Amino acid sequence: MILYEVLRLYPPGIGFVRQTYKEMEIGGVKYPAGVMIELPLLFIHHDPDIWGSDVNEFKPERFAEGISRASNDHGAFFPFGWGPRICMGQNFALLEAKMALCMILQRFEFELAPSYTHAPHIVLMLPVPYASAFLSPHRATGERPAREEALPPPLLMLMMLGAASQWILAAAAAAAVAALLWLAVSTLEWAWWTPRRLERALRAQGIRGNRYRLFTGDVPENVRLNREARKKPLPLGCHDIIPRVLPMFSKAVEEHGKPSFTWFGPTPRVMISDPESIREVMSNKFGHYGKPKPTRLGKLLASGVVSYEGEKWAKHRRILNPAFHHEKIKRMLPVFSNCCTEMVTRWENSMSIEGMSEVDVWPEFQNLTGDVISKTAFGSSYEEGRRIFQLQAEFLPTKNNRRLREIEREVSKLLRGIIGKRERAIKNGETSNGDLLGLLVESNMRESNGKAELGMTTDEIIEECKLFYFAGMETTSVLLTWTLIVLSMHPEWQERAREEVLHHFGRTTPDYDSLSRLKIVTMILYEVLRLYPPVVFLTRRTYKEMELGGIKYPAEVTLMLPILFIHHDPDIWGKDAGEFNPGRFADGISNATKYQTSFFPFGWGPRICIGQNFALLEAKMAICTILQRFSFELSPSYIHAPFTVITLHPQHGAQIKLKKI
Ligand code: HEM
């Protein structure tokens, strides 16, 4: 209470400043971009309308029932800031202050020295210029301390430093002990106190879950269960893939029900299982649900817009959006079609005299989507783009740190070269070739309009290109692979799709308008995305206590939005949830179930996948080109074994027997 009351009356930081990056309405007032907004902590902490008429009195008891009851506005006390950028060190600071105060109180009584002048002023923080006090040993004789003990601390420090070098050694030793103490306390805080506090808060809300294990949480158990699950393939035609793909979460739901929590290291991960709550989280209207901090692997693979928050995300998304507009993607169709034709021609050339062949379509589709994204992203700089793709493909299995850094450097160098060339061409009046990079550079120049801070830096454009690469190649090849596997398992739907394709295009190259009108093929792709979503779950993080579906989640909890579980839930999709039935999408996505967020393979809300139209058009082009030329079935060597390596892969490949038609 005392520390809180001191922090209220004498907050070390007396205010915060934020700047508007675009026009913003706050409390009914519109602030243009570029305005500095002062958040006057000191004024708010001293406001009698908030704290009462005794606002300027030192009354620690006002905090007797905690911070939230101390004033008539629970947001009125924020000496450590507030929201996502709240001081990371607040627990550290409070603990340190308590420790210091306790040790002083144990040993001394104290009062102000006559020389003390009460004159708080600002030099970054709120210092006390001459903070001398008379310290006397606790319950001691009342002897006055020596004069230098009452000197201002900086002077005292200088005198001490000058006096003897052993003081320096002593100070260094003390600093080392303090650093060790700090390390120990923050490790304990991170690995034990915080997880235990969060666990208690979740259990108090009636949410059940796994017991916390120090440091590792459920990670070793997850590895063990995955290893076990991966030993057992599924029967052909079985789409009940959850226990194999996400065995730990599946077990948690069995044992604890929904919602329940597991541990990703010291962070609890609560699985949210009702579509309404999922919609609320994904809408993220006020920025209350953020993305968890990216892992090291995530950062190395690609950061870019997918990992940003707040204004930075909004700026990047605004610049990227035009590149993914329908009209722009329509212009990329010839690239899609050429790449698909190249692939099927290769397949045709490898056929036996009887017109049969066996192909593992998984690497084939990775190649196809890699080719498509290289050409659509980099246009004339395709060769350099292709090299980047090869380097990134090498990246994932590489564990050698030196090699990883080399790859990073080479990818950045290649991208920097391509971007520089493109920027110079556009400045010389050449229009972009309609490729993603050109559109991005153009949109960036338009958006920044000469003001660098409104646009993206070259490094940021590089990150976005790496992201296109990863996001554009990986996910779409997964969708195509499962589509071929599932259509091999369900030949009646393969036949219906082929009829539709031949009806629209015969043997000619599919055009944009007819591709957009395909009904059966679209229903099939949706049903494959439902049963085999390339991204099996998403995560978000609470920045502060949030109420969701009647449950209060404390800050720092990870919410898991389990696409795979929701897509397979019989309470949402009916008894036939585990069956392949594209007919459920006959009247569109919105009529397939009664909830908006029961189908979200591309995410939802403001952060919905920017490339979904791109991916669906590419997938339709590929499926049509294949259906026009081949019938196909599973090879006897195919083993049905979906598992996740970031996205949903076929563990033993996707061997398909093709027959020329
Ligand atoms: C079948 C194919 C695809 C699937 C299933 C898919 C899935 C997703 C999902 C689930 C998200 C949301 C992530 C979240 O909210 O945390 C997302 C975001 C994103 N996707 Fe895709 N994606 C696909 C294809 C693509 C393609 C082809 C591109 C680009 C060429 C792309 C670029 C992106 C980007 C940039 C974001 C981040 C958007 C943001 O945070 O504002 N995706 N994708």
Automatic annotation (TrEMBL):
Taxonomic classification: Eukaryota, Viridiplantae, Streptophyta, Embryophyta, Tracheophyta
One annotated GO biological process: brassinosteroid homeostasis
Location of the protein in the cell: Membrane
Its membrane topology: Single-pass membrane protein
Binding site for heme: C609
Coiled coil stretches, renumbered: none
Family assignment from sequence similarity: Belongs to the cytochrome P450 family.
Keyword Transcription: no
MF annotations from Gene Ontology: heme binding; iron ion binding; monooxygenase activity; oxidoreductase activity, acting on paired donors, with incorporation or reduction of molecular oxygen
Name by which UniProt lists this protein: Cytochrome P450
One Pfam family from the record: p450
Keyword Nucleotidyltransferase included in the entry's annotation: no
Protein species of origin: Oryza rufipogon (Brownbeard rice)
Cofactor(s) it depends on: heme
PANTHER family: CYTOCHROME P450 72A11-RELATED, CYTOCHROME P450 FAMILY MEMBER
Cellular component GO terms, alphabetical: membrane
